[in-house]
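User: Hello! My lab partner asked me to get a predicted holo structure for this protein. The small molecule is zinc ion, SMILES included with the sequence. Please write out the structure tokens.
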Amino acid sequence: MPLTPRPEDGAAALLSPGVSRLLVLALVVGVTGVDVARSAGAETYTYDRRLGVVARAALAHASPKTPFRFVLRAYVRCYRDKRSFEEAYTRRSGESAGRVVAYYAGDGDVHLRNGTCRNVRAFLAGRRTVYTAGAFSILLHEALHRQGVRNERTTTCLANDAVRWGAGWLASSEAQSLRARNLAFTYTRLFAPPSYRMGKPDCLALARRKDWPAFARGGAAAER
Ligand SMILES: [Zn+2]
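Assistant: Hello! Below are the structure tokens for the protein in complex with zinc ion.
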């Protein structure tokens, strides 16, 4: 569907320590093939342009040989509340949102719960916890789906690795960036379903071998 971004700067968002609990038992899914009443969600979310900019930069830095223009923009929808996220998800998928914390539905948009967006903003503000690093990785996971990466286990791995490069782009030191990446791995280990998990050593070996474009749809190496 054509994109009509409504950028919104979420810079003023305040952080709540309780937000992170919303992400417990998180599940990240992709939804495909279902179109919906596009206007229905118009008032129930805002686009956070800054999150899209950071996601794109993180993925660009995770693959330095890829020209920046080849990294597709993702338009990040931050839903107003639990109900608006879940209703929009159910309209698309016909299923209960349950433990879904974010999803990608095949166009330029990625869809995040309000608590996920708040935790990403907390990460950007320098608060580094399992939950904020996990939320940043969730954003990157959906942004990787936008690039055409499909396999969930691979996507989660590449997103966790990209947390490191995103943190570096945000001017974190190498040590801080590696710590953020490790926090994201911890989040995955604690909360992601098995079908989304890859052991950290296996993942790091994979990420060292190939940058994420190799796994994108039409990428040279495909997933083996
Ligand atoms: Zn996914």
